[in-house]
Amino acid sequence: MLYSFTGGSDGGYPAYGSLIMDNNGNLYGTTELDGHDAGTVYRLAPDGTETVLHYFSEGSDGFGPEALVMDKKGNLWGTACCGGNANGCGVIFKITTNGNEKLVHTFAGPPGDGCGPDAALITDQSGNFYGTTPYGGEHRGGAVFKLAPDGSETLMFSFNLKGDGFFPFAGLIIDENENLFGAAVYGGAKDLGTVFEIAPDGTETVLHVFKRPAKQGSNPDGVIMDQAGNLYGTASSGGLAGCYGDTGCGVVFKLAPDGTEAVLHFFTGKKGDGSNPLGDLIADGA
Fold first, then answer.
1. Distance separating alpha carbons of residues 151 and 135, to the nearest angstrom
2. Is 245 exposed, middle or buried (0-12, 13-18, 19+ CB in 10 A)?
3. Which whole-number Å values give the CA distances from 225 to 9, 59, 144, 233, 254, in the listed order?
4. Which of 13, 147, 15 is nearest to 68 (CA)?
5. What are phi and psi of 215, to 5 degrees?
6. pLDDT for res 225
7. Cα dihedral sign for 189, 276, 175, 166?
């Protein structure tokens, strides 16, 4: 056990976003609550010593921080799902290496901006950030946005609550041509979700639509990519019968570049296996 949160000034209920690590072995993460119920960003030293870098106030700096990413200078960038302004659509913040927090962007909500960011940002080679919001956008079905290093934000794509999917809760990945890939939990043919690609000019291509019967999985989370261009991800429902409401226990899937899907694993929910996976996969050298 490295650290146990008390729910007081040290924070409590660490957010679903993964920890990140710097070159010195320090871990960084967020909690949903603190003594003021607004959340924290913290650092955990290799010896287990915790330092709170920022307390959120439920004001203009937002509250409910999610995942973090670190830039080349060691600054932390993150999203908070809520607060920021009267719309309560959340913010993007930056915490400098000396612990100062800077508000980078406040989401204005629909129709011109996203709302409720819930996943980590990613970067391209020029230092631009990209992310998703599950709500907001022109059609209120979520959005993909781009954030320049100077803090200016561009709404790249708005989901339309129809065939292209909607509610993209997970983050994105980016290829060498700066095409973005991700998954929408709902939408498509039967509201079972989609996997999509966003070109640098904001054009969307639906790579795969999850369909009924949901033996191939449904309600996908994020995706990762191998060197051959295959995508891999988890779907929290579908697959084999059973689990919550007999809607299926979820799967691990693979998508070929042509969109063909193969199920690599059906979760059973039984002893020795899990069920209803949430979160991105990672890959080893093999």
1. 21
2. exposed
3. 39, 38, 19, 9, 9
4. 15
5. -65, -25
6. 96
7. positive
* C-alpha separations of 170 from 47, 58, 246, 277 in Å: 31, 24, 24, 13
- Residue 36: the pLDDT is 67
Per-residue pLDDT, averaged over 51-77, amounts to 90
Residue with tokens 């650290």: 3
Report, as an integer, the average pLDDT of 184-188: 91
The one-letter code for the residue type at 140 is: R
Q: What is the DSSP string of the chain?
A: ------SSTT-EEE-SSPPEE-TTS-EEEEEEE-TTSS-EEEEE-TTS-EEEEEE--SSTT-EEEEEEEE-TTS-EEEEEEEBSSTT-B-EEEEE-TTS-EEEEEE---TTTSEE---S--EE-TTS-EEEEESEESTTSS-EEEEE-TTS-EEEEEE--SSTT-B---S--EE-TT--EEEEESB-TTTTS-EEEEE-TTS-EEEEEE--SSGGG-EEEEEEEE-TTS-EEEEEEE-SSS-SGGGS---EEEEE-TT--EEEEEE---STTS--S--S-------
Q: Distances from the Cα of 163 to the Cαs of 131, 191, 260, in angstroms?
A: 21, 8, 18
**pLDDT tens digit sequence for 206-245:** 999 998 778 899 999 999 999 999 999 999 999 988 888 8
